[in-house]
Amino acid sequence: MKVNMKCFATLVDVGSCNFDDGTDYTLKEGQTVEDLIKASGLLKEDVKIAFVNSKKVGFDAVLSEGDRIAFAPATGGM
Asked: What is the model's pTM?
């Protein structure tokens, strides 16, 4: 299944997690937000908040075809 991942602030990396249009990833059915973090090369401890289709979720949220995932790092006061 294909999902699209977007990163904010210090998590942005042009090769693995673009901000503008996001970055497409192919995962297996049943994989989670945490699996996507690992597949992208991000460190789980660097991700403070995860969103799937604009809703805040936990790292154990199961992803589906076409999901749009966004990650934000801890920033000022978080």
From this structure: 0.90
Q: What is the pLDDT of residues 13-43, one digit of tens each?
A: 767 787 788 899 999 999 999 999 999 999 9
Q: What is the CATH number of the domain that holds 30?
A: 3.10.20.30
Question: What is the average per-residue pLDDT within 69-73?
Answer: 95
Cβ-proximal residues to 14 (8 Å cutoff; 6+ apart), any chain: none
Strands 23-26 vs 49-52: parallel, antiparallel or unpaired: unpaired
In a domain, 77, yes or no: no
Q: Is residue 78 part of a domain?
A: no
For residue 21, what are the domain limits? 2-72
Q: Is residue 18 in some structural domain?
A: yes
